[in-house]
């Protein structure tokens, strides 16, 4: 298989050749939409939330200026940043002021790894890969970090920008769940840990978009990572078979892609409508 590099990581060829955490989660939401996007038949809208997260990531990875060149939509006509991205600058300043946060982001940047889970090729791009010495330093300065990285030889750190740290309503669970579960960061952690290969702890370094940005450092417990890996091993072969055209994808019936491609097939009683079923009429 073609080697994954910084230059080709997001190329259509590599997206088709390898699965990643974002792609895996897209298949979880709607197999039909995920496949259509891979084939170039559909494109998910680029939201301000995604752009802000990318903006902060680009600052820490050293790709800030090239990121701004690729996204002129972040700027007003007079060349100044729009309000949302001025908020992103505030988040960055808050991160830079925090000793622990900067230690977490001091590892090797944008480390690419590839490997297999249940026979399916996966690729990952780690925001900050810490070595054992840095982990020891963190525990020395911040003893409460010992539970997450006390005896480890390193750590995988993923940076996130989120609305806030409050629980999020889950349609699947029919209750509020941690923002980590709601956005699938536990799934990402399981993929990253397995592909990196050294069973390193997975840590989320996050900032919020609130008026005064909040910061947080969270780890995903090992038992949760193992549980999520088991789910991935069950699901990934099916998603790979869909990518290869061996089985047909399921439609979720609720996403923008399914709504845009729905075809009417008849007239039905209004009370047959279900939240869990696509209504093709």
Describe the structure.
The protein is α+β, with helices and mostly antiparallel strands. The protein is 44% helix and 17% strand. It is built from 13 helices and 7 strands. The chain has a 5-stranded mixed β-sheet with strand order 1-2-3-6-7. A two-stranded antiparallel ribbon has the order 4-5. Helix 4 packs parallel to helix 6 and helix 11 crosses helix 12. The longest helix has 22 residues. The N and C termini lie far apart (44 Å). The mean pLDDT is 92.
What are its keywords?
single chain; 281 residues; alpha+beta; five-stranded mixed beta sheet; two-stranded antiparallel sheet; 44% helix
If you average the pLDDT, what whole number results? 92
Rounded to the nearest angstrom, the radius of gyration is: 20 Å
Percentage of β-strand residues:
15-25%
Low-confidence residue ranges: none
Say how many strands there are.
7
- Proportion of residues in helical segments: 40-55%
User: What is the molecular shape?
Assistant: globular
Strand order of the largest sheet: 1-2-3-6-7
Structural class: alpha+beta
Counting H and I runs of at least 4 residues, what is the number of helices? Answer: 13
Q: N-to-C terminal Cα separation, in Å? A: 44 Å
In a few lines, what is going on in this structure?
This protein has 281 residues and is α+β, with helices and mostly antiparallel strands. Helices cover 44% and strands 17% of the residues. The strands form 2 sheets. The protein has a 5-stranded mixed sheet with strand order 1-2-3-6-7.
